[in-house]
């Protein structure tokens, strides 16, 4: 029975990954920071092979406890780790880097707090902590797949082609996380591991939440840029559509793909 562990599993893309991964042939561990947010996961428990585990991915000690729990429940093995949990600072997404000129306080907040606190400690640091915590279990597993969600915005060529200059802190942090995956892939390729960063595409994760006029304007700028390379692009896809495509890519990955940065199409087509 293939085993999966998915971080950030209580909502959004993570919840859909759990939903699409759960079937009678898989054992799925859904990692959440707060059990109070896990009701929607528990609603999927009719299959009987989903386990909700509590842990903070920024806390190495908490992850060690989760790894021990997973190890006990699955004979010391894990096949697939999906690093989905991430942080997006919506306030800075629509702010171009030029806006920080003469606004040193804002620059400090966004580039130090967002990139340092959430990139070093949450984004990159948490990915490293999570991978390290589950490496022994993955070593004993069959698939040895470590998937980390990224974004096409971390591709310099994509930014050049679309002319999209917003979402800078988010893009910077994901680009660095891609390099983390590269380093792991080089170190563990000889052991048959598959480390891959995958972009889910432009996904509607906002849903019914209110968005500000600045966010809406930024979204329009993004669409205009994206349509430079794909004139027929209609906008964000649903989490369900994205996850279905991602899982199809993940299923067919082999060792030759390790270290790759791919889209939900399995190539460099980010939209």
From TrEMBL:
It comes from the Eukaryota. Keywords: NADP. One of its GO terms (molecular function) is oxidoreductase activity, acting on the CH-OH group of donors, NAD or NADP as acceptor. PROSITE patterns: ADH_SHORT (PS00061). InterPro entries: NAD(P)-bd_dom_sf (IPR036291), Sc_DH/Rdtase_CS (IPR020904), SDR_enzymes (IPR052184), SDR_fam (IPR002347). The keyword Cytoplasm does not apply. PANTHER family: CHAIN DEHYDROGENASE (ATSC), PUTATIVE-RELATED, SHORT-CHAIN DEHYDROGENASE/REDUCTASE SDR. This is NAD(P)-binding protein.
């Amino acid at each position: 029975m293939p085993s999966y562990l998915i971080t950030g599993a209580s909502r959004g893309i993570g919840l859909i990954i759990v939903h699409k991964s759960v079937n009678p042939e898989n054992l799925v561990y859904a990692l959440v920071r707060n059990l109070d947010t896990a009701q929607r996961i528990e609603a999927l428990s009719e299959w009987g092979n989903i386990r909700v585990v509590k842990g903070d991915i920024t806390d190495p000690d908490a992850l060690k406890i989760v790894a021990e729990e997973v190890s006990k429940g699955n004979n010391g093995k894990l096949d697939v780790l999906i690093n989905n949990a991430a942080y997006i600072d919506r306030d800075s997404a629509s702010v171009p880097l030029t806006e920080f000129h003469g606004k040193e306080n804002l620059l400090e907040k966004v580039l130090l707090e967002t990139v340092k606190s959430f990139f070093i400690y949450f984004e990159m640091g948490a990915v490293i902590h999570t991978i390290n915590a589950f490496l022994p279990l993955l070593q004993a597993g069959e698939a040895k797949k470590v998937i980390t969600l990224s974004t096409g915005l971390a591709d310099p060529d994509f930014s050049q082609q679309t002319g999209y200059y917003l979402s800078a802190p988010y893009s910077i942090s994901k680009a660095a996380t891609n390099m983390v995956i590269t380093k792991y892939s080089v170190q563990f390729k000889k052991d048959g591991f598959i480390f891959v960063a995958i972009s889910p595409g432009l996904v509607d994760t906002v849903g019914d939440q209110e968005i500000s006029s600045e966010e809406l304007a930024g979204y329009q700028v993004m669409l205009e840029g994206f349509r430079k390379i794909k004139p027929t692009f209609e906008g964000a896809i649903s989490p369900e559509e994205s996850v279905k495509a991602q899982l199809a890519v993940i299923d067919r990955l082999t060792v030759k793909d390790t270290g790759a940065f791919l889209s939900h199409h399995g190539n460099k087509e980010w939209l």
